[in-house]
Amino acid sequence: MELHQLRYVLAVVETGSFTAAAERVRVSQSGVSTQVQKLERELGIALFDRSSRRVALTQEGERLMPAIRAALEAFGEIGATAADLRGLLLGSLRVGTVFGLTWPRFYDALAEISSAHPGLELRLREDTSAQLIGAIRRGEIDLALVAWAEHPPEGLGSAVVFDDPMVAVVAPSHPWAARRRIRPDELVGMDLIALPEGTGDRAALDALLSGRPGAGAPHWEVSTPSAVEKLAVRGLGVGVVSAATCRRWEGIRAIPIDAPDVRSRLGVVWRATPTRAARALLELLHPDE
Questions:
Q1: What is the rounded distance in angstroms from the CA atom of residue 255 to the CA atom of residue 288?
Q2: Do 6 and 68 contact (CB within 8 A), yes or no?
Q3: N or C: less crowded end of the chain, CB within 10 Å?
Q4: According to CATH, what is the number of the domain 161-265?
Q5: In the predicted model, what is the mean pLDDT of the chain?
Q6: Residue 233 above 70 pLDDT?
Q7: Residue 137: CB atoms within 10 Å
């Protein structure tokens, strides 16, 4: 078993094909395929199911991937430790963020760490909070900006960046437009406009409706906050988002929802044992300020 074979396996998993993996590691496709097959023969199991159009891990491969990732990370820590002694960061830093993040400090921190450590390979992934949290648990990313409604993800390090109440967003012509506050039970039966499952605002909405008779799925489920705004301003329903989400929207009314315990929280989450690069980025983000 050789280190480059493990790197090739990881490249195939992350790119989804031997061709793309070969481009990433700058080796011919036949070279990648041959080395992976050698590793499979040595281990006595098939790592990949090659019968479908997109290469997928077998069950045995799925079970081995955490060990393969851990082995590569452990090897990378040798160089990272030496670089750390020289005041540099090497290796990779895989970062995730919810779709449409507009927090300037996050992008400033990425720019600063990239400038200070040119040998560090930065990767950024956008996804829903649920997908990003799962990716951290699987070791696919090191740190992410995600949202949650009540409690932070279990088993991960976390720090809150924003902690916002929920509001109902309506058009100026809506009967609620002059209201000062909305009770959660009043949302039942309304044509609600919501972000998809896996987002912090949706988790908060689900918490608001939990256990209430007659509560069903939102009438409108959209992928971006801007779509919530566009539907609400035209009187097509009641948007339910955090106060921060709609802070810069024009032509709408944002009415507080009377549920102080249910809030939308955006924060940083990381694995229980963060890498040196992840710790360096956390220091730049200083989310607890």
A1: 28
A2: yes
A3: C
A4: 3.40.190.290
A5: 86
A6: yes
A7: 15
